[in-house]
TrEMBL record:
Superkingdom of origin organism: Bacteria
Protein name: Formate dehydrogenase subunit gamma
InterPro entries cross-referenced by the UniProt entry: Cyt_b561_bac/Ni-Hgenase (IPR011577), Di-haem_cyt_TM (IPR016174), FDH_cytochrome_b556_subunit (IPR051817)
GO cellular component, one term: formate dehydrogenase complex
UniProt KW Iron keyword: no
Gene3D superfamilies: Transmembrane di-heme cytochromes, Chain C (1.20.950.20)
Organism of origin: Thermosyntropha lipolytica DSM 11003
Keywords: Cell membrane, Membrane, Transmembrane, Transmembrane helix
Length: 159
């Protein structure tokens, strides 16, 4: 709990601008993101699917970026309540246990899916190296994140 709390504080304090930009990106959830999330299970199972153009983060990445930090915050808060039960109302302590359990199960699922999709899923090899090196091929970025690619490198930026 202490480590998670320190990690959150360090991330917010030392990377505030990146945090704000990340939040802006993940909250840009539109029709294409909903279509992506609806079609992705078919792609995941290997069916050929035409996906809608995406921004810097696709609909699934945005969902992961919302669910995982929410689970971490719930884990930290409920963990402190369980750790120091005498400081809190008994009803709050009782509700902290199922909240902690649900957040842990959900975050474990999200971490496993993130690990698989980022490392082993056939269409994600470029993503893995992007996380490792910090860059991806331009043609891959244009195909998987067309809206972001156009906003960042399109004709508008060339002028």
């Amino acid at each position: 709990a202490v480590f998670m709390t320190l990690f959150i504080i360090i991330f917010v304090v030392f990377n505030f601008k990146a945090l704000v930009n990340w939040i802006k990106d993940i909250l840009r959830f539109g029709k294409n993101d909903i279509i992506f999330v609806m079609k992705f299970p078919l792609e995941f199972l290997g069916f050929p699917v035409k996906m809608p153009p995406q921004t810097k983060f696709n609909g699934g990445e945005k969902g992961n970026s919302i669910i995982t930090p929410t689970c971490v915050i719930l884990l930290v808060i409920s963990g402190y309540i369980m750790w120091f039960p005498s400081l809190f109302a008994p009803g709050l302590v009782r509700i902290a246990y199922p909240i902690h359990d649900i957040a842990m199960v959900l975050s474990t699922f999200m971490v496993c899916m993130h690990g698989y999709l980022g490392s082993f899923h056939p269409g994600s090899g470029e993503s893995f190296w992007g996380m490792w090196k910090g860059t991806v091929r331009a043609d891959w970025a244009k195909h998987h994140h067309a809206i972001w690619y156009e906003e960042t490198y399109g004709e508008k930026k060339a002028e």
